[in-house]
Here is the input.
Amino acid sequence: MTAPVYVALLHFPIRNRNGDVVTTAVTNMDIHDIGRSARTFGVRKVFLVTPIEMQHDLVGRILRHWSDDHAREYHPDRVEAVSLVRLEKTFDCVKAAIRAECGGEEPEVVLTDAKPLPNVVSCADYRRELMTPGRKRPTVIVFGTGWGVSDAFHPAVDRILAPVDGPEGAGGYNPLSVRAAVAIILDRLLGRRTGAAGAF
Ligand SMILES: C[S@@+](CC[C@H](N)C(=O)[O-])C[C@H]1O[C@@H](n2cnc3c(N)ncnc32)[C@H](O)[C@@H]1O
Here is the structure.
């Protein structure tokens, strides 16, 4: 058992290819694939964060589609995954929703990024923190879209996870799709380990 873990996928404030702060569009594939990873690894909820009203209308329709009786019968695994997904307009709303579910506890905000940032915590160390008996403080793991989460978000961040690197090591090629990054990071933090715990 771990402390409650949540995932937030930010669509604002996001960097574009020129480093400007932009709002990105929600991707259908992210909803399904991140929902499946969340359900597999015991994440409580996945928050899609976008301030754009039209995106709420569109994504709201998708979420409603995957909650009706036909979908339940036709594709129950997908319905179970998508049922964890929530839409919020701001990250403050995400924190408020988590506090409401966790007896008022303020969530620890943990950022992910492919690029090296200062003062990172490894997944192995953070996994140990999450598994500390008696830990009640919830955690929200934040993922980006576009070219990643803008520095403008950094004041809201408590911890930063070390990037996932391949055999080339730090500075080598590592920009994963957000779906792959979510699956790898959730496995490192929450996945069942048999035998010696991995060295991540
Ligand atoms: C920059 S977005 C890319 C969105 C892209 N359009 C896609 O196909 O998914 C990818 C997000 O996944 C996470 N991510 C990607 N590669 C990562 C890595 N090597 N280590 C840690 N997080 C990573 C970060 O949260 C990053 O903001």
Observations:
- The two ends are 19 Å apart (CA to CA).
